[in-house]
């Protein structure tokens, strides 16, 4: 199968206080069209740096990154991005945030917003302002906004990290269903082992600085994944061993 995202020998060093800090060291990774790949690792291992580089927000890397066969030279509407915080514009409604930046006429925008609110489980909340939404609802709006221009790649940087455990699991399940229905290639960053196994077709394990890929795990479990099953536990134990956690 052809590769849709290709990271080739990417390194990234940040200069500061007279010495460089290497965030990524010779990272190579191929991602297939429609695949859900999770980058997991401890804080400071370079996983968010890698995601930002794929997004085109950080171009200070050496090596090459291709998306859809084209070199990444900056941000592009074909790559949607969701951050840890929803980052909604407070003066716009949920519908206004989703429609913001959409290149379409009023009727088309309205239809697209309605379609996306249905998709993320927020039908009827089009006129709600960010301060009227819970954290989980705001993040659903952020996901809808990222999907609005119909990107082929969805990049997510610890999008559920600030949410309580119950809301987090609900949104993981919602995201899984969204990904399957939209068939959008998804790269998801987390430091949560269970989250990586609940979502990823492949889990890419990154080592502590300088960030390298130490292991790639194919998660051969059907969706939705049973988090208390023996098979899930085996994957969890394997990942914990990778990080020296017992």
Polypeptide structure, described:
The mean pLDDT is 93. The protein has 2 domains: 172 residues, 3-Layer(aba) Sandwich (Rossmann fold), CATH 3.40.50.300; 64 residues, no CATH class. The relative contact order is 0.18. 33% of the residues lie in helices and 26% in strands. It is α/β, with parallel strands linked by helices. It has a 6-stranded mixed β-sheet, with helices on both faces. A 4-stranded antiparallel β-sheet has the order 2-1-4-5, covered by helices on one side. A hairpin with a 2-residue loop joins strand 4 and strand 5.
Topology, please?
Layout lengths: L4 E12 L2 E13 L4 E5 L6 H9 L6 E6 L2 E2 L7 E4 L11 H6 L6 H14 L15 H13 L5 E5 L7 H18 L2 E6 L2 H7 L2 E5 L6 E6 L11 H13 L4
